[in-house]
Structure to design on (302 residues):
């Protein structure tokens, strides 16, 4: 496996990295020497896809944009689809596109053929994407793209788990047609320390995350973070909001540094505190976490 790292400084190259100034690395080949490791904000289980041996190329943006490229046979695409369907996400979106594409390496301008692409946003890039304007929104959850090349019959050879939302750019091709992305509206929440400061200051070394939980699922789904103005911006469909109100699902707020993992037992963020109008949000008061063995532990005011 080859690894290269560089600081990307030109406008043209930065465009490949979602316009983020970052230390970007590229890997050629599968992750046999240095297995892929899950990053902050990655959904549980998604790391198994970058670890697949069909991976031929990947780029990693230091601020939170990762792209993985695979050159697969039919059975390998089926393996990726199965892994993708089991990742802990709300929407499992797979795009089907005709034709083929090639990825060009940063350093050697080598062209690498691929037929499957996985895009994952995390960190700062994901935080920015959560504030995208309607119509220009980037995918907040990992998205898989399958390129069919010249073989239209490929779609019939693949096994499609029922929870996949399949969006096809090929005329006459439809898979899991009853499974669509739900329409979601924006809701705001507000959280602050006792002194009115935001629970996500670099000076205090903490950040605050909102996580969605279900009874029979051990892993939650990250929905957002508190910004520097103390607000979180979350997306819910009517059905998802109804499940929250009925207690079928719930939200938690986790306050700590990047090493602190969200838990089901973390302080719940009441659904009643969410509002469609940002200026109508009422704050949940929390106290500054204390340090314990280098980690920030949550302490919430009664």
């Amino acid at each position: 496996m080859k690894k290269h790292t560089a600081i990307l400084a030109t406008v043209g190259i930065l465009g490949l990295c979602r316009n983020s100034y970052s230390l970007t690395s590229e890997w050629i080949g599968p992750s046999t020497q240095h297995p892929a490791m899950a990053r902050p904000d990655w959904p549980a289980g998604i790391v198994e896809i970058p670890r697949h041996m069909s991976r031929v190329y990947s780029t990693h943006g230091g601020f939170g944009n990762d792209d993985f490229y695979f050159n697969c046979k039919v059975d390998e695409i089926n393996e990726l689809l199965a892994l993708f369907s089991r990742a802990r996400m709300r929407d499992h979106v797979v795009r089907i596109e005709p034709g083929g594409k090639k990825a060009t390496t940063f350093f050697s301008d080598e062209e690498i053929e691929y037929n499957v692409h996985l895009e994952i946003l995390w960190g700062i890039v994901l935080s920015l994407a959560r504030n995208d304007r309607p119509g220009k929104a980037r995918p907040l959850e990992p998205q898989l793209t399958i390129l069919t090349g010249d073989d239209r019959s490929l779609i019939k050879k693949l096994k499609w788990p029922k929870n996949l939302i399949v969006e096809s750019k090929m005329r006459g091709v439809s898979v899991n047609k009853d499974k669509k992305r739900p329409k979601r509206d924006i809701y705001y929440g507000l959280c602050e320390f006792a002194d009115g400061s935001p629970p996500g200051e670099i000076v205090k070394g903490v950040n605050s995350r909102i996580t969605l939980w279900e009874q029979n699922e051990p892993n939650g789904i990250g929905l957002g973070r508190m910004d520097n103005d103390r607000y979180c911006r979350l997306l819910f469909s009517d059905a998802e909001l109804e499940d929250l109100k009925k207690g079928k699902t719930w939200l938690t707020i986790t306050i700590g540094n990047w090493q602190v993992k969200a838990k089901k037992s973390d302080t719940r963020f009441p659904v009643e505190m969410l509002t469609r109008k940002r200026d109508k949000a009422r704050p949940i008061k929390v106290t500054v976490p204390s340090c314990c063995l280098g980690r920030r532990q949550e302490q919430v005011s009664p």
